[in-house]
Specification:
Blueprint lengths: L3 H8 L9 H12 L2 H7 L6 E2 L5 E2 L3 E11 L16 E10 L5 E2 L3 H5 E4 L5 E2 L3 E4 L8 E2 L4 E9 L9 E12 L9 E17 L8
Parallel strand pairs: 1-12, 3-12
Antiparallel strand pairs: 2-3, 3-4, 4-10, 5-9, 6-7, 6-11, 8-10, 11-12
Length: about 210
């Protein structure tokens, strides 16, 4: 298990800057427990899927559709004052399978994460609605919605034609806390996606 100093060091990684505090805490806790690095070392590997496969993980069902890297966020354009900025985007059809609305900054950013080459979990910094590029607020029950998970890439990022994303399952526990309240609790790493990444960095304006 990682000690306090290791967790602090991970939090200073530029990949993590800008992520919501609740997401950071959840992912750091998972990393401390081994996360995808531990899952990779098990004799039984995690199932690996391609874009277009729908995975149902308890609270959420996700179907990654496509991924791309660009010099602007979805719906934006290149910043003339910072032309070296780069963003990695994963577009996903997502369905909230719980009985109530959930916040976009919660389960989606905690449960569908980018994996570094060292299998370090990296949460998206932004979740946008794919249709109008607005910040995703509530995700309503049993409603399939298309969203864009956005990662601001650190300076010097080496473009890869494929990236790996990890998925956590989340099960409902009737007594999840000491006060006996129920909750959807994140479990262990459940699956991986290996997805081709389209290079749109030659475009000045979003398609």
């Amino acid at each position: 298990m990682a000690n306090k100093d290791e967790l602090i060091g991970a939090a200073r990684n530029p990949w993590w800057q800008g992520a919501a505090a609740v997401v950071l805490v959840a992912i750091a806790a998972t990393a401390a427990l081994g996360g995808f690095g531990e899952a990779k070392s098990k004799s039984k590997p995690l199932p690996e899927y391609k874009a277009g496969h729908r995975y149902q993980g308890g609270a959420l069902a996700v179907k990654p559709l496509r991924a791309w890297v660009a010099r602007y966020k979805p719906g934006g354009r290149v910043d003339p004052f910072s032309p070296d900025k780069q963003y990695l985007v994963l577009q996903v059809e997502i369905e909230n399978r719980t009985g109530r609305s959930i916040n976009g900054f919660g389960y989606p950013q905690q449960d569908l994460i980018l994996l570094s080459k060292q299998r370090e979990p990296i949460p998206a910094e932004t979740l946008l609605m794919a249709d109008d590029h607005s910040i995703a607020a509530d995700l309503h029950p049993r409603l399939k919605q298309r969203v864009d998970l956005v990662w601001a890439l650190p300076r010097g990022y080496a473009y890869s034609p494929q990236e790996t994303w990890g998925v956590f399952a989340r099960d409902y526990k009737a007594k999840a806390y000491l006060n006996d309240e129920g909750a959807w609790v994140q479990g262990k790493p459940a699956a991986k996606y290996r997805i081709a990444v389209q290079d749109l960095r030659d475009r000045a304006v979003a398609p």
